[in-house]
Specification:
The chain has 415 residues and is an alpha/beta fold. It has helices at residues 33-51, 71-84, 96-109, 122-128, 132-135, 146-164, 180-192, 211-220, 235-243, 262-265, 290-300, 312-332, 337-349, and strands at 22-28, 60-66, 89-94, 113-117, 138-140, 168-174, 196-203, 224-229, 249-254, 274-276, 353-354, 359-360, 388-392, 396-401.
Amino acid sequence: MSTLAGCVPGGGGGGGDAEGPITIGHLAPLQNPLGVGSKRTANMAVDQISENGGIMDEEVDVIHADTEGNPGTAESEAERLVIEEEVDVMVGTFVSEVTQAIMDFVAQEGVPLIVTGSAAPSTVTEFIGDDYDQYKNFFRTGPINSNFQAEAMVNYVNHLNELHGWDSFALLADDAAWCQPFVDTLPGALDEEGYDLALNQSLNINIDDFSPVINDVVESDADAVIRFFAHINASPFLVERAQRELTFGIEGIHVTGMHPAYAQLTEGAATYETTSQSGGGGTTDITEETLPFVEAYRERFADSDPPVGHPMYMGFNTYDAINVYKEAVERGGTWDYANDLDGIVEAMLETDHTGVAGQIQLYGQDAEYPHDAMETRDDEGTISNFPITQWQPQGALECVYPEQHATAEHMEPTW
C-alpha cells in the first residue's frame, strides 16, 4: 500500500496512489452471459467517466475478477483486488452466497462494496443490520431485495388475474438464499388475496430432469407457474412445455431467460415466458437514461459475442453503481476509505441518482434494510421498480408490467 495514501485531500483511497488513478474492482461470473454484460457496462461507465474528466479530476481504471459464481473463488479474488490491485471500491457479485462469503474480509479491509447482482435481504439484515459499525462499507444499489420482489409479485399476480382470470398458481424456486422470502411469504400473501396455491416446490439448483415437475404442474391444474430461478436454467422446462403445447403461464424471475437472444436460442420455446429484470431488458424508458444507454451498448458491442442486445439485469445495475459511486465521491470530496470511510458512507446515503435501471436512493442506518436500494412506489403504493418482460411471438421482447412502463399487453399461451 502506498505510504502517500491519504496525504492529500481526497487522495489515495484505501490502497490507491495519491496521484490516482481511482481503481474500481469488478466482481462477476465472467464466463456467464450475465457477467459478460456486467463487465461490458462497467467498462462503458469507466470510459464515459474518463472522457468527462474522471472522478475529482483523477483517471479511473477498472479491474475485473471472475468469481465463477463460487464463494471460495470470490473470496480469493476479493483478496487479490484489495491486497494486490489496491482497488478503491468494489462493485458487482452475483449469487447471494458469493456476496456473503466475502463480507467479513471486505468489512475488515473497509473498502466500499456496492452489490449489483444478489438480492437476499439477509445479506443486509444479518450483516450491516446486526453490526452497523463493522459492515457500514457495504451497499446495494439494485435490484430491490427479495422481500420487496415478493410484494411486487403479488401485485403482478393481481394484474394477471384482472387480465386473464387466473386464480390458481404453482410456486417453484431455487433452493437458495435469495428465494427464501418467496418461499416464506408468497403462500400466505397469495392466500390473503384469495388465490389457490396448487403447488409449492423448492428445486435443487442442479436439476436436469424437469418432466416430473411439469407433470406435477399439470396435475395441480394451476393457471400459471410463478418460478424464481437464478441458478436453474429452465430451458428444458420450456422446451418440453412447448412440445406438449401446455397452456399454463410461466411467470416470475428466470435469469437465463433474460439473455437477449433467448427466444432464438430456445427456437421459440421461450414464447410467453415472463421474467422481471432490472432495466426492463432495454425495452422501455424506465428513465430518460435507459434507452440511450441500451443504444450505446448495442452500438459498442455490435461485433462482439453475445449477449449484444442488452446486458442482462446485473449490467444495468453495475453501470448505475459506478456512477452512483462517482457522484458520492465528488459530493463527499474523498475516495480515501482508509482515512475517511464515514465521509464516503455519508455521501453514499445522500444518493438520489437517475440511473438506467431506475431512480436510486438508499435506506439509512436505522432502516429495516440499511444501505439497501429503496423500492419506488406509485400513487397507490404499488412497487413500480419491478419491470416484467415477456417473450412474445416472433421473438419479440416486450415490457408487460407495470402499466407506466408497458410496451405491450401480457399474452396468454396459445400454441
